[in-house]
C-alpha cells in the first residue's frame, strides 16, 4: 500500500495521469499524440491484468490514432497493425483477424520508408505472427493428437506458414550478426521459428526435416540454459518417431518428456495427461505382458490428470476414456469397461447432445458388452435406446 501511495504522489507532482485515472472529459481534450500514448499504456496495462478484450480495443484505437499523428502508410502504422495482429493471435487465438492486419502492415512496409532497422524488426514480428496464424487456419482435421490439438494444414496454409517462418529465419540472421538483438532474444526467436517449422514439416510428412528442427530446438534451449522447457520438444520427437513406425524410440522420448513435465515445480497436468494417454496407446500395441500392465497404469494416470485439470466433461477426457474402454475389452475386463462406458454417458449427452453419434456408439458398445456378461435386461435397455437413433 505504501508503494501505491508513493506512486500516486509522484504522479501528482509530475503531472502524469495513469490510464486508469484518466476521465472521459480529459480524453476528449487530449491532442492525438497524448491520446496515442494513453492508449498504448492502457493496452499494456489491460494485457498485464488479463483484460484481453479491453487490450485489443485499445490497440484498435492506436491504429486509428497513429494515422492521425503520423499520416497514412507510415512505418508507425505498420508497427501498430503488427501489435494488433499479435494481440489477436496470442490473446484471443483469432487467426483470420491476425492475418488481415499482417496483410495491412505488409502493404505499408512494401514502400520501404522509415528506419531500416525498425522496418526489419517489424517485418520479423509480422512473419512470426503470420506463420503462427497460418498454422491455426486450417480446413481439414488430421488427428486430435490425444487432446493436444495438432492439425494437418491444407496445402495453401502449410505453404504460407512455411514461407513466413523461412522469411523470418532469413531476416533473423543478419539482425543477430549486426548485434541488433540480444542473444536471449535471438535464441527465443529462432526457437519460435524451429517450433513452427517442426509443425509444418510434420503436417507435410517431411519427418526427417521436422526431427532436424527439433534437434536444433534442444540446442537452443541448452544455450538459453532452460532445459526444463525441453519436455515439449521431446514430446514432438516422440510423436514423429511414432509416425515413422519406431515404437521403442517413441516410448523412450515420450517417457522422458512425461518424466520432465510431471517433476516440475508446477506440473502442467493437461499436457501430462496427454503424454500419459500417448504412452498408454503406444504400449497397448506391444505384445509383451509387462508393457500391457504399464499401458493400463498410464491410462489410469491420464484419466486422473484430465479429471483434475479439465474435468470429466471435456472431450480430451472422454477420448482417453473411450480408448481405455477398448483396451479393457481386449484385456477381457468387460465389467470395468461397462462401468466406464455407463459413467461416460451423462457427460457425452451434455457435450455432444442426446442424439449424437458419440452417444449412439457408446450405447451400442455398452449393449454388446452387457450382453457378453449375460446382463440381458441392461443390454436390452441400451440397445432399445440405440434403436431411437435409427428411427430419427
Automatic annotation (TrEMBL):
Residues covered by region (Disordered): 1-21
Highest taxon in the source lineage: Eukaryota
Listed Basic and acidic residues bias regions: 1-13
UniProt xrefs under Pfam families: TPR_12
InterPro entries with a match to the protein in the record: TPR-like_helical_dom_sf, TTC23/TTC23L
Gene3D superfamilies, per the entry: Tetratricopeptide repeat domain
Protein name: Tetratricopeptide repeat domain 23
Amino acid at each position: 500500500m505504501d508503494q501505491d501511495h508513493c506512486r500516486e504522489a509522484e504522479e501528482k507532482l509530475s503531472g502524469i495521469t495513469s490510464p486508469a485515472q484518466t476521465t472521459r472529459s480529459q480524453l476528449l481534450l487530449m491532442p492525438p499524440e497524448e491520446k496515442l500514448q494513453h492508449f498504448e499504456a492502457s493496452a499494456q496495462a489491460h494485457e498485464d491484468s488479463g483484460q484481453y478484450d479491453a487490450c485489443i480495443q485499445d490497440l484498435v484505437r492506436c491504429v486509428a490514432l497513429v494515422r492521425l499523428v503520423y499520416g497514412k502508410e507510415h512505418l508507425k502504422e505498420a508497427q501498430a497493425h503488427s501489435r494488433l495482429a499479435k494481440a489477436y493471435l496470442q490473446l484471443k487465438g483469432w487467426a483470420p483477424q491476425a492475418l488481415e492486419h499482417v496483410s495491412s502492415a505488409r502493404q505499408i512496409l512494401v514502400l520501404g520508408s522509415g528506419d531500416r532497422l525498425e522496418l526489419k524488426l517489424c517485418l520479423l514480428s509480422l512473419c512470426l505472427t503470420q506463420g503462427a496464424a497460418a498454422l491455426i487456419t486450417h480446413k481439414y482435421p488430421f488427428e486430435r493428437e490425444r487432446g493436444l490439438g495438432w492439425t494437418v494444414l491444407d496445402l495453401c496454409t502449410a505453404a504460407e506458414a512455411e514461407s513466413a517462418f523461412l522469411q523470418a529465419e532469413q531476416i533473423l540472421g543478419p539482425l543477430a550478426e549486426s548485434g541488433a538483438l540480444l542473444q536471449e532474444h535471438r535464441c527465443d526467436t529462432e526457437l519460435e521459428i524451429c517450433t513452427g517449422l517442426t509443425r509444418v514439416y510434420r503436417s507435410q510428412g517431411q519427418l526427417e526435416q521436422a526431427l532436424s528442427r527439433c534437434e536444433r530446438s534442444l540446442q537452443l534451449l541448452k544455450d538459453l540454459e532452460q532445459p526444463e522447457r525441453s519436455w515439449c520438444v521431446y514430446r514432438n520427437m516422440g510423436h514423429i518417431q511414432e509416425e515413422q513406425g519406431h515404437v521403442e524410440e517413441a516410448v523412450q522420448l515420450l517417457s522422458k518428456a512425461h518424466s520432465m513435465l510431471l517433476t516440475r515445480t508446477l506440473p502442467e497436468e493437461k499436457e501430462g495427461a496427454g503424454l500419459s494417454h500417448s504412452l498408454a496407446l503406444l504400449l497397448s500395441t506391444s505384445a509383451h505382458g509387462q508393457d500391457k500392465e504399464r499401458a493400463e497404469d498410464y491410462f489410469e494416470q491420464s484419466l486422473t490428470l484430465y479429471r483434475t485439470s479439465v474435468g470429466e466433461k471435456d472431450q480430451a477426457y472422454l477420448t482417453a476414456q473411450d480408448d481405455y474402454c477398448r483396451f479393457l475389452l481386449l484385456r477381457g475386463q468387460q465389467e470395468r469397461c461397462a462401468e466406464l462406458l455407463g459413467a461416460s454417458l451423462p457427460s457425452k449427452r451434455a457435450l455432444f447432445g442426446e442424439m449424437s453419434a458419440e452417444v449412439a456408439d457408446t450405447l451400442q458398445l455398452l449393449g454388446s458388452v452387457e450382453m457378453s456378461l449375460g446382463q440381458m435386461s441392461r443390454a436390452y435397455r441400451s440397445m432399445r435406446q440405440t434403436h431411437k437413433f435409427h428411427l430419427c
